[in-house]
Amino acid sequence: MKDYKTEEEFLKDYNPNAFAPFSVTTDILILSVSNEVNTNYRKLNEKHFSVLLIKRNNYPYKDKWCLPGGFVGEKETLEDAAARVLETETNLRNIYMEQLYTFGNPQRDPRMRVISTSYMALVDKNRLRDTLGENASWFTLNIMEEKDSIDVILDNGNEQIKFTVGKSPRHMTTDRDDFTILKNDALAFDHPLVIVSGIERLKNKIEYTDIVFNMMPEYFSLGDLQQVYEIILGKKLLDPAFRRIIANKVEKTKKVKTGAGHRPSALFKYKGKK
Amino acid sequence: MKDYKTEEEFLKDYNPNAFAPFSVTTDILILSVSNEVNTNYRKLNEKHFSVLLIKRNNYPYKDKWCLPGGFVGEKETLEDAAARVLETETNLRNIYMEQLYTFGNPQRDPRMRVISTSYMALVDKNRLRDTLGENASWFTLNIMEEKDSIDVILDNGNEQIKFTVGKSPRHMTTDRDDFTILKNDALAFDHPLVIVSGIERLKNKIEYTDIVFNMMPEYFSLGDLQQVYEIILGKKLLDPAFRRIIANKVEKTKKVKTGAGHRPSALFKYKGKK
DNA sequence: TGAATAGTGTCTGTGAGACAATATTAT
DNA sequence: ATAATATTGTCTCACAGACACTATTCA
Question: Which residues of B are less than 8 Å from A58 in CB distance?
Fold first, then answer.
């Protein structure tokens, strides 16, 4: 390698095409919790996990569903690109987002070599005016975890999408991020992996961070909050235990939720980190 | 957008240069634990966290230290690229590795737009024959965690490198991956961020996975193992508590370590996940 | 009144933190 | 004998799991 004397000299001589060019995209996993309106006036509204998907209208994977995504602009941060995609699909800004994983298999995209960094966004559905992007639709997430695999069923009322992801422990260790697609008909690219790793991440982080509150409205009842925990963790929690855990994260307000055929619940707000 | 009838037709028409090309690199954080030979025959050898760094011999950041890294090949997986870099620098294969984070700020590299996916590798130093790559050197890691920042001092015996990163809680949540460089003289690129997020990741994962054993030799004493935990977690542990935690992860062997001026310790091996 | 949820009290067992006590080696 | 670590025992306290009990609302 030639030994340059100054950085300017080096840059002047530098050929940016000396290395193979890649395209870089972001995919964004937008998760939320939906309120299913219930028929029984006494019962609580059942909640569901939901993901926003887009129907592709061109190749590759034409007519398949996929996560919202797009190419990263030349002067754009990865995160800015993800936020931009999020905004075009949901009309929401200032949403909690975190980077998930970067996929870069050479065969990912038949068009060319693509590196895709995925992000996870958590939104409170109450903030959504029904201004979804074109071809976008919320799908309910149904997750069944087996010993060595995870089955997922997505449903938007009209269509059902199913896929299965295998958990593949790496080397001698447990790398939770490591999954492989076992069955997948209807979802484009490696997006099943993004969905599953996002959910796993959320499942872990709900226990040691406060990210759940990004999916909650400003005022919420502890019953509602508990339901969200239960959906994410995939299991029922005992009331007293749950209340103990979140006691110092929330603050009781004077507001009350009435209207249902049972004792009204106090509304709480997120207190922030102490 | 034109509506193509078949995928072939679409691909034929597709121009891969329609979007800005990026270069993609990997950086690899190679962590290990070193045995400092002690003068007192009674005392245990002190251990240190250590990282492998490379001295850059060209621009940008000429003569600064950096993490081993390189461009991702055209037909190469991100992970394969990281493993290749790892092998050229350490002559080791089949090392535990996991993806850390992808950095892609437009100003990362003065040469061109670069996206860099970082990996963390954990190695057992006993497996190393002194076949380090050119310009490579192990640095001892000294970490001091403050309330809002983390100070790090790297030392290879000749040189000292210091930097400070800030912990910046994002939005209303705790995203542990999110750091900013506050002070940094001698380390190239955004590598301080990679180092700090790798350590944080390791700190977390040591509690709920078995990745530590990737840094251990086949046979080890519980005292040695405890020292490694203590270095990673940055605090002393109580013997009985530690033994309870790892009891079902290890298996006692008939081997014994003698030679020091105190009771010999039994050697254990990793039992694998139950 | 009854179905359904809201909210609290309390018992029990597990497990971490803390400290003490014993065992074993090389010089 | 002594310094140093290895290894085990045990007490206490905090806290999660489990269950029971009371409170309150609307049709």
Answer: 1, 3-4, 10
Q: From the CA of B248, how many Å to the C1' of C21?
A: 25
| Number of domains within chain B | 2
Positions in chain B whose pLDDT score sits under 50:
1, 15-17, 171-176, 274
**How far apart are alpha carbons A144 and A150 in whole angstroms?**
6
**CA separation for the pair A152, B159 (Å, rounded):** 53
Q: Count CB-CB contacts under 10 A for residue A47.
A: 16
- Decide: CB of A143 under 7 A of nucleic strand D: no
Q: What is the DSSP letter of B215?
A: G
Å from B14 (CA) to C14 (C1')? 63
Are A142 and A244 contained in the same domain?
no
Q: Which residue has the higher pLDDT, A178 or A15?
A: A178
Q: What is the pLDDT of residue B178?
A: 78
DSSP-assigned letter for residue B134: T
For residue A131, what pLDDT is reported? 77
Mutate to test the interface with A, among B14, B103, B115 (most CBs of A within 10 A): B115
Contact: A115, B115; criterion CB under 8 Å: yes
Same domain, B124 and B223: no
CA nearest A115 in B: which residue?
Answer: B24
Residues B189 and B216 reside in one and the same domain: no
Distance from CA of B103 to the nearest CA of A (A): 8
H/E segment holding residue B8 = helix B7-13
Distances (CA, A) of A269 to A249, A250, B22, B224, B247: 9, 6, 44, 47, 42
Question: What does the pLDDT look like over A202-239, one tens digit per residue?
Answer: 999 999 999 999 999 999 999 999 999 999 999 999 99
Instruction: Report the alpha-carbon distance of residue B113 to residue B108 in Å, rounded.
Output: 7
User: Is-above-0.70 flag for pTM?
Assistant: yes
Residue A261 structural domain: 211-270
Does residue A203 contact residue A232 with C-beta atoms inside 8 Å?
yes
Four-point Cα dihedral A165, A170, A176, A181, nearest 10: -10
